[in-house]
Amino acid sequence: MNYIIYIREAFPIFFKKQTLLQGAFVLMLAGLINRILGFGLRLVLVRILGDQGIGLFQMVFPIFVTFAIVTTFGLPVALSKFVSERMAKDNFIESLRLLKISLGFTIFTGIFFSFLFYFSAPFLANNMLQNSQTELILQAIAPALFFVSVASVFRGFFQGLRMMTPTAISQIIEQITRIIVTLIVIKKLLDYSLQYQATGAAIGVSAGEAIGLITLVTIFLKVKLDNQQNLNTNSRLKGKRELCKELIKFGFPITIGKIVASLMYSVEAILIPTRLQAAGYSVTEATSLYGQLSGMVQQIIYLPTIVTIAITSSLIPAVSESLSNANYHELRNRYQEALRLTFYTGLPAIIIFYLLPTKICDLLFGYPQAGNILKLISLGAIFLYLLQILSGVLQGLGKPNLVVINSIIGLVFEMIIIFNLVSRPNFGLKGAVIGIIVRFLIVTILNFLAIGREIGFRLDFKQLILKPIIAAISLPIIIPTTYQYFWNLWQSDSASLILSILVGLLTYLLLLIITKAITAKDLNRILN
Question: Are residues 332 and 346 in the same domain?
Fold first, then answer.
């Protein structure tokens, strides 16, 4: 893979230790590319498979994610935290030992759970998902368990080094591979039934994860060679048993937390369709509605998580490093930076989703009826973006157990609401959305209070909230006005929608600069 070496030589800044904003920027750029590519694939799949086919694939994915979480045992996040602490003291040798322990564990568990997942597919399909059409999809995605678990360990290691570029490159290559393989396989299966076509998407996932892992291994070999020239052999090295204990102690609550999150999606995949059937919908109608929520609306709502996921990945090692050096001033600054970036990007997104839900769903998926769901869920989406950042801070502070407890509390409230509201015909799918919003809100509040108890509640609310709200006030005025202008000009829904959103976002960005919400100092922290 000589292209990796060429990129490294052309852009050396991306292959050295990066600041919080630099690392977040690299991952955001990769995330944006991946989301565009992934959305392109999603648009094609919706038009080929329809909402029922997408619903079949989405029913399988939460179970796959649950198995992947158990396979990795929280080691990627633990590795990111502990490697960053070692590298703060130039202890690369122990960082490598932590990586070797983590790899040994995930290679074993990856092989074991891949086979278990494959052979338990009939049971999962018929008993858990209660849909025999998902059996082939489960079997096709089983190999990805091994690849994704081992790759996630390498990504955790690179993030601990505060190098986000390897993760970014591998994710882009993985997505491109997934798209190519998925489209080729589905094209071959067009004359077969819907379950076979949906299986093509699962095969694409397995192929993409395999190539992504190969990319990470190639980059690792080069990074290892570079760092071995500057080894600090004077550091006291911990024994293998002590390192294992450290990883497991931190990784266990992370695993539980991720299992809770994954089970949440699995329970949603089972509970929402069944409660919709209790409300009088047929199996096909319930699957289609769930497909609109999980395969369309939630895909749109999760678009801004390009930012939050990137920040969180960069934030955990940054917070751990500050904590290791007892630099609480820097820790609070990084916390404030992360919240600002999240609020600045999340606020205009939810306003756009609320203003133009039907048009967005129609343009992207050809399902304008999903717009009502999008409009409702947008009311609580900002809490989704914030809770991801707050969870990352708590993990960086070494408090993953609090993330678990808060997530469970939120999940309990969500399940109670879904169970009681979705089966009522006057609520239906809206009851599920209300439950999801309540979970976002509760977990955000609990995480915020937990962080405040650790490092204090002092935040610059003028810079954090007031200025972006002032800038965002322009969006409900600018977007409808410019949409109507472009519509009168060209009578094109697509062009009018895209251009009006662009004009609105540019106006919002300009107002952020005018109000000094964004300053030259912010840009310098990214570029230098």
Answer: yes
